[in-house]
Amino acid sequence: MADKGIRIEGLKKRYGKGDTAVDALKGVDMQVASGEVVGLIGPSGSGKSTLLKCLGAVIEPTAGRMILGDEVIYDGGWKVKDLRALRRDKIGFIFQAPYLIPFLDVTDNVALLPMLAGVPNREARKQALELFKALDVENRAKAMPSQLSGGEQQRVAIARGLVNRPPVILADEPTAPLDSERALAVIRILNEMARQFETAIIVVTHDEKIIPTFKRIYHIRDGVTYEEAGQGRDF
Amino acid sequence: MISLAGRDIMHAWGKFVFTGMGLGLLIGITLSMAGIYRGMVDDGKALLDNSGADLWVVQKDTLGPYAEPSSIFDDAWRGILGMPGVARAANVTYLTMQVRQGERDVRTLVTGVTPGGPGTPGWPPYLVAGRQITRGHYEAVADIATGFALGDRLQIRRNHYIVVGLTRRMVSSGGDPMVFIPLKDAQEAQFLKDNDAIRQQRRRTAANPAFNRPQVPDLLNAVIASQSTNAYVNAVLVQIEAGHDANEVAESIRRWKRLTVYTRSQMEEILIGKLIATSARQIFMFLVILSIVSAAIVAFIIYTLTLGKIREIAVLKLIGTKNRTIVSLIMQQSIALGLIGFVVGKITATLVMAPIFPKYVLLEPLDSLIGFGAVVVICILASIIAIRAALRVDPAEAIGG
Fold it and tell me: What mean pLDDT value characterizes chain A?
């Protein structure tokens, strides 16, 4: 396994205290290498979203360890002071719905992230346009989000997740609103991007259409993960 | 870094501008209210300035002649004129009444001025048309705000007057335009009764044995004559000689004539501090209420706009946007709304509201500047609720689950 990517060990998350406490994660182990796309599958209430929020540094785990690339980001407590900067620079997010900012054009939706990191506007837009070429939406660069189709919006959302070249991308049901053809296209793109940008991608999904495409799958049930070899079918 | 607030405004500029215009009308009313107060103060000052007086000699222990009734003998001016430091002294009467002209009547301050010439205390200092009063009776000079024209025939009580001159900005402290008539006519008008009342009074006097004495046959006629004439004026306006101190001259008149005397500053204090004080407080309360309403409207609009962006704010926070960027987004929008509102309000107050108000509306640049500052402060304060709501948005909302 490559050094980069993400590794979590014995990750636990407890909500509440005392008799009403709920253990959403009971010791999750997971490892995703750079350039790899893995599926995270589980029924509702299994702890998928909690795991995603812990991985995304949005909520604090109760115990365990998380290593992002070479950096330990959590070990019984956050080891990174600025979680906001961690999310901005080291973690990419792709949501179920694209959630593009409706008042920014497509380019600025993507370029906003490097701009937030201090990259000059022109350079940030250049980075966005490069990604649009790779994702085949360069002809829509000046459009507003409302002028794009669902598939185009999702590709722009993928570009936003990738633009800061994060070592890990968390994709929360990215194909849910798409038909089979477009869903498989998104997975193909994610695999290409993972390879091209050496990014570890974790795809949380219920989507039966795309599950066979993963080479590795983590099942999560009652806060515990089980690793399984996937079918790794062509998309 | 791009301006998120600017992009958001440009994205929905129509909604934003229309909202700003609605707010602008409210700000326009607020500026007009301030203008009405300034207009009242300016009317009061204009009344004092245009009277041409340095001192006002009035009935003892009254705040006359504007704030309280005042009545002094119409020959008091002679004694005052002889006092050291007095350059000119002239009687004046003031009577607020409806002046009829044809089918219409206009509320005016009828001012009786002594014969003389321009520069005599009480006379209108300048005319915009026609001439000053030259005859002892039945001529009038009117402020153009009355709507009267040269040659118009006015009715005051039972007498008719011809408008021979027009003047401008000659108003009472209440904003009523002034009509100048000869002093004797004004004195008569103050107490002139109808014919029935005069006959009734003569009958009553004749029935009184104290006045109707057979052994003093002229007594009854003398009493009746005294009842039908008015030997009082409301005040004596005094101009002091150059080089004399107004306070010293006033003190001298108080001491020797046993009358109350006000200097210019004292009269201004009476007009602004007492006569229009209640109106000023009322307007101030309106201003406070309008400011609170404006703040509430801005707060509500910005809060609603922010609630409509909760998901975007959650995404922005998740992807690492700093709180200050989000605060800046909301605050800039709030201030932009206030700026649009202020510009619309200023234009509305100046070009639409002020000209149609019946009373003088004085829009001072300083008030506009203070209003602008108040709008910015109100907008900043009003955005706090929305900012709090935005800062409470959990970035996890973007992930769902």
Answer: 89
The alpha-carbon gap from B41 to the nearest alpha carbon of chain A, in Å, equals 49
Q: What percent of chain B has pLDDT over 70?
A: 100
For tokens 């245009």, name the residue: B50
Tell me: pLDDT of B99 over 50: yes
Compute CA distances A11 → A61, A93, A224, whole Å.
7, 20, 9
What residues of B are in contact with residue A50 (Cβ under 8 Å)?
401
Q: Where are the domains of chain A?
A: 6-229
The more confident residue out of A230 and B212 is B212
Cβ contacts from A onto B, under 8 A = 82
What's the rounded Cα separation, in Å, for the pair B33 and B63? Answer: 28
Tens digits of residue pLDDT in A129-176: 998 988 888 899 999 999 998 888 988 998 998 898 889 999 988 887
Mean per-residue pLDDT, B296-303: 87
Say yes or no: A104 contacts chain B, CB-CB below 8 A: yes
Q: Is residue B116 very low, low, confident or very high in pLDDT (cuts 50, 70, 90)?
A: confident
Greatest Cα pair distance, chain A, in angstroms, is: 57
Residue A24 half-sphere exposure toward CB, CA atoms < 13 A:
20
The pLDDT, as a whole number, for residue B253 is 95
Residues in chain B closer than 8 A to A172 (CB atoms): 399-401
Q: Is residue B385 part of a domain?
A: yes
Flag if A160 and B398 touch (Cβ within 8 Å): no
Q: Is residue B171 part of a domain?
A: no
Chain B positions touching A121 (Cβ under 8 A) are: 1-2
> How many other C-beta atoms lie within 10 A of the C-beta of residue B376?
15
Q: Give CA–CA dist A3/B124, Å, rounded.
A: 97
Residue A2 confidence (pLDDT): 44
ipTM value: 0.83
CATH number of A6-229: 3.40.50.300
Min CA distance, A88 vs chain B (Å)? 4
- Boundaries of domain holding B300: 4-44+277-398
CB within 8 Å of B203: residues ≥ 6 apart: none
Q: Are A99 and B309 in contact (CB under 8 A)?
A: no
B343 within domain boundaries: yes
Q: Is residue B185 part of a domain?
A: no
Structural domain count, chain B = 1
pLDDT of residue B401: 56
Whether B319 contacts A160, CB under 8 Å: yes
In this prediction, residue B252 carries a pLDDT of 94
Query: A80 in contact with B at a CB cutoff of 8 Å?
Result: no
State yes or no: cis peptide before B182, omega within 30 of 0. no
Nearest residue of chain B to residue A162 (CA atoms)? B319
Chain A residues lying within 8 Å of B10, measured CB to CB: 103
